[in-house]
Amino acid sequence: MTKTMHRWMAFAAVGTLASVMAPAVAFADTTSVQAIPQGVGPGVLQQASYFGDTDPSTPVTVDLVMKLQNQGQLAQFIDQTTTPGRGFRQYLSTNSFASQYAPNPQIASAIQTYLRAYGIQSTVYSDKLVITATGTAGQFNKAFNISLMNASLHGRKFHATKTPPQAPSSIANSILCILGLTNYSDFASQAVKPLTTSGSTEPNAALAPSALMPSDLEQQYDVTPLYKQGATGQGQTIGIVTLADFNPSDAQYFWNYNHIQTKANRIHVYDVDGGSGLSEADGSDETSLDVEQSGALAPQADINVYVGPNSDTGFVDAFAKAISDDAVQELSTSWGESETAIASAVQQNLETPQYAQVFNQLFMEAAAQGISTFAAAGDDGAYAATSDSVETYNLSVLNPADSPYITAAGGTTLPVLEAAQFGVTKERAWGFDYLYPFLAQLGYPPLNPYSFTGGGGGFSTVFATPDYQQGVSGVNHFTAVQWWTPSADGTSTTFNANPQIVTGTGSGRNLPDLSMNADPESGYSVYFSLPIADGSSDLDTGWSQYGGTSFVAPQLAGLSALINSADHTQVGFWNPQIYRFAQQKNSPLHPLDDTGTSNDNIYYTGTAGTIYNQATGLGTPDVAQLANNFR
């Protein structure tokens, strides 16, 4: 099942409004204060149990996220960079982006001055969109007129403030939201072990790798012609954003085992906000597989690994560094949480919750700078919220894959390995419904840990349908298999042994964008060891078989590097281009449009003759043909 890596942060206690004005700070409107949205809102904060103030000496790291300026103009600029003609693939530097689309630098300077008056230190990323501040709970209490308290919800302990932070209006007007004053979070790795080996979560040193290798992907999705042209990813740098540490030597061992000639000293690790702080198996396998897979497909590319703490600020700051440094051409992440969880953790009834907008702003910057960015669409089929804190059975999709400015990587099943033994005869949408008869034979009840496993997909409730999806057949229309009927409140569900085929319409950003093999039953070999404090590894080292859309996202990043080196270009943001290709004759993307239980992600299935469906997006790529289209 999905390895859930929950993200936590530190928060503080509170002061009075008068204390905000105590230091001598040069603001003309010091009598005018304004509330600032914070990353976690009433959905969590009002339900939690509180039991005392947080120790005022507790270290706290907070992100003040600035409001993107001229967002409509930025969207037009990105469209120009992805459309042949004037401005095509003419990207911005980070400094140019900041000068055109970030708030006036004087605002950031004023915020830093304000924080410094309370003893809080801060740094501004070069894109001028994120200010990271570090101090103590007591200092943040006074600076933002809050009272951070110890709290618990759903068995989890965290710090929180029920009242929104406040600051002088002269600076608050430019702040989109503050992240880190509450550390309730649900980031999860999108990696899954197959049912047949699920008894152990540790690698087996004695196990010879028997699952798929990168060479299998190369054959399945027609990558080999690019290698014959001499493409190797030369001149490219792949970025991996992750929330867990790993042993870089594992990736090198993996490449050597597969006889892949790689560039020397190609892995560069950047610990963001002090790194993950994880010393055991809390996602180290995820990071290892991300590096192994992307690096195998583009063997001469460099790989920058941005490792942040499993927290709001850690995830945001890892992206902020990767994007504002502007040192990568491709960027991938395999972590996320459901929109349903976010909806219960931000202020209610907002059309565009600020939390999701934080990531969307960063991905718009990445697109403007020509970075091809990919995110795993999730491993819970159409029910992304079943494995996170809210545990509802309503349809949901994963963030940050829901951003219109990132390529959402979906999942399929190949007719190989265990999947073939369970009756899969051709590539299909990944959904563990094909295992339901086998699970019943094993005595599993209909509602069991494997019931909602499959490639993520569906409709965003946060972001509108982007222009590049408008008018594409299958977008905002769906065919589905009604395996499950959730209750009205989503807290329970009923299994339908003979599911009906239903049709309907949807709205919002449609996910995923394209798909490749992600089913652990037709999965890939991973070699990893568990990092420990001294940087070495313990005895839990060896091979394992994994799946998940966490493979597809880094694989696409590696393929993007390969395509860039083959075409001697920088492709940039994929989505507007691949949706255009999909509507042309001789499309490099092959829709999986069969309807029914042989091709669903536990809910969504194909519709004959359409280009798009919410189980597999535009389908699977012919990579060599895709490279020709990108030229």
Describe the protein's architecture and organization:
- The protein has 631 residues and is an alpha+beta fold.
- Helix content is 26%, strand content 22%.
- The chain is built from 19 helices and 31 strands.
- This is Protease pro-enzyme activation domain-containing protein.
- One of its GO terms (molecular function) is peptidase activity.
- Residues 1-28 form the signal peptide.
- Residues 211-631 form the Peptidase S53 domain.
**Individual helix count:** 19
Which structural class is indicated by helix and strand composition? alpha+beta
Tell me the span between the first and last alpha carbons: 39 Å
Instruction: Give me the Rg, rounded.
Output: 24 Å
Secondary structure tally: strands:
31
Report the mean per-residue pLDDT as an integer.
86
Q: Unreliable stretches, pLDDT < 50, 5 or more residues? A: 1-30, 197-202, 347-352, 533-539
Q: How much strand content do the residues show?
A: 15-25%
Helix content: 25-40%
| Form type | globular
Report the biggest beta sheet as strand number plus sense, adding barrel if it closes.
8 strands, mixed
Oligomerization status of the protein chains: single chain
